[in-house]
Amino acid sequence: MAGWGAAADANETKDIRSAAMPVTFAGTVGLFMPAATPQTATAVLFLSPWGFEEMCVRKFWRILAEDLADIGIASLRFDYAGTGDALDAAAEGEGLSLWQETALAAAARLKSLSGCERLILITQGLGGTIAATLAERLPDIDGIAFLAPVISGRAYLRELTMWAKMIDEGMGLEEAQRQTEGVTVASLRMPDTVADAVKKLNLTALTRLDTPNCLVLTRPGRPADTDFCRHLETLAPHVECGTYEGYDELVSNPTVAIMPTVTGKRIVEWAGSIAAQSNKAASINSETPIAEPLVGDGFRETPVRFGKGERIFGILCEPEGERTGATALLLTTAYDRHAGWGRMSVSMARSLARDGIASLRFDNANVGDSPPLPGAPEQVLYSREQHLDVAEALDLLEARELLPAFIVGRCSGGYLAFQAAQRDVRCQGLITVNPYSFAWDESRSVDEALRYAPRSLETYGRKFLQLETLKRLFGGQIDAKSALRNLATVLGRRAIRSTRRLLGVFPFLAGVQGPVISGFRALAKRGVDMSLIYSARDIGLDHLHEQFGEDGSGLKHFPDIRLTIIPEADHNLTPPYARKVYLREVREMGLRLGKA
Hints:
Elements: H1 2-14, E1 21-25, E2 28-33, E3 42-47, H2 52-70, E4 75-78, H3 97-114, E5 118-124, H4 127-137, E6 141-147, H5 153-170, E7 183-185, E8 188-190, H6 192-199, E9 213-218, H7 223-232, E10 238-243, H8 247-251, H9 261-275, E11 294-296, E12 299-306, E13 312-319, E14 327-330, H10 344-354, E15 359-362, H11 386-399, E16 405-410, H12 412-423, E17 427-433, H13 446-451, H14 457-464, H15 467-474, H16 480-503, H17 515-525, E18 529-535, H18 540-548, E19 561-566, H19 576-595
Parallel strand pairs: 3-4, 3-5, 5-6, 6-9, 9-10, 14-15, 14-16, 16-17, 17-18, 18-19
Antiparallel strand pairs: 1-2, 2-4, 7-8, 11-12, 12-13, 13-15
Helix pairs in contact: 2-9, 5-6, 10-19, 11-12, 12-17
C-alpha cells in the first residue's frame, strides 16, 4: 500500500512543471530554462523592458521560456543591475552601460549553461535598444525580436509621464502624494543617467544591425513602429513585421493582464524557424547551475526553488551577521512579481536582514516566475490552491531551521496570509495590509471583482469633486455604469452597517458563526501575534467595519490585535512615509517573535 502511494506521488510530481533554474552572475539573478530535449545550438536571451512594463511581461516571459524549452530551445531571463532582484549598483554608470554590461554577462552565462554557440534575442521596450548594442559586440546573434520597441527616447519618456499619471490616478493618489522626481512610474524611478541616455535614443538612426533576422511587432496606433520596421529592412536581409496582438491588455495592469497567446505563438514559431536553420547541435554540458548568494550591505540573498517538483521560485534573504528575529514570509500581491510593487519587498527584505531578520519572498503558482499547479484554476487569486504554496514555503523554512516564522501580505496577499495562518500552526505571526476581504465568497467572480473593485465612499466623494474627474466622466473616459454600480455597492454596505449599529447587532458578538470572527478567535486562542494595517481611505476598511463595527470597537474583544491606520496613503502604500510605517511594523514583529 505504501509503495502504491509513493508511485502515485511520483506520478503527480511528474506532471508538475519545475520553475526555471536560478543562477547568479554579475550581481544579478538569472533564470535558466534548459531545453526539454536539446535540438539546436541556438539559445534565447530575453532582454526585458523597464519598470512597470517589466512587471506586466514577467509572466509572459516565463510562458515563452517554457514553450521554447518544449521545442528544444534553452533560454535565460534576468534582471538588469539595480532592478528586480539584482543588487543595487554602487554607481549609476554612464547611460545604459550598466544594463548593457549585465546583458553581456547574461549572454556569456547562457552560452556556458546551454552549450549553445549562437543566440536569439527576444526583447521588449528598452530591451530592444540593449539588443542593438549587443549585436555590435557579439558576432553570433542569429536574430532579434523587437516587441513594442522604444523608437524615440523623447517620445518614450513622454509616454512614461502619461503612464505614471494614469497609474497614480488609478490608485487614487492626490497630486501632493505622487512621486514626480525624475522619471518615476509605479514607484520605480529610472536612474537619471539612464533617463538622460534614453532621451537621446533614436532607433531609426541605426546604420547597422549585425543580425540576419528580425521580427518587429508593432503597437496599435504607433506609426513610428512601422517606420522602424521599414528602416530595418535596409539593414538586415530577413525582416518580418506584424502587429503585437494583445499588447494593451498585457501592459495595462499586472493584476488583470491577459497573456497574448497569439503573439506568443508567433514569437516561438519565429525563434524555432531560425534555430532550425542551424545544422549543429548544442554541445553536451554537464555543468549544474549553482546560484551562489548575492552579498550586499548586511544581507545575502539566495535564489531558490522549492515545493513539490521544485515548482516555486523565490529569494531567501538572510542577515550577514547573527539572526535575531523570526523569519518573515513575504507574500506576493495579486500578480505582481515577488520583488513587490516598486521593489517594496526587495527593499524590505534587505532592511530586515540588517536588523537580523531573515525573509523569504516568492511567486505563488501561476504568478511571475512560478509555473501553474496542474489542475488548479487559471485564476489563482483567492483560490484554495494558494494555501499549498504557503505550506511548502514554510516547509522550506523548517528544513533550513529558519522557524519561527510570521506571514506578511498586502491586499490579496493579506487575505492569503490570514487564511494560511489559520491552517498552519508554524505561523506564529500575521501582518495584513489593506486586505480587500478576510473571507472570499466563492460565488463571486474574482476577475470581475479585480476589474471593477469599488473604492471607499470617501474616495468617491473626493474624486467626484475634482474637475478632472468630471471632464473624464462626461468625455466617456470613465465607465459610468461600473462606477455607479460600485458606488451603490459601497452605499449599500454602509447602510447595512448603520442598521446593525442602530439594532446593536455586530458580527463580533455572534459567537463562531462568522468565518472571519471565528478565524480571528482561533488565531488569538493560539497566541498568534496579529497586526492589521490600513490606508485611511482604503476600501478594505469597509470590510473591517462590517466585522468589527463602524469605529472598529469590536477589536476590543481581541486586545492583542494592533490596528494601524496610515493617513494620506493609497492602497499600494506609494508614499515613502507609508512604507516606513509598514516596515516598522514588520521589523517589530520579527524581533518580538524572535525573543519569544
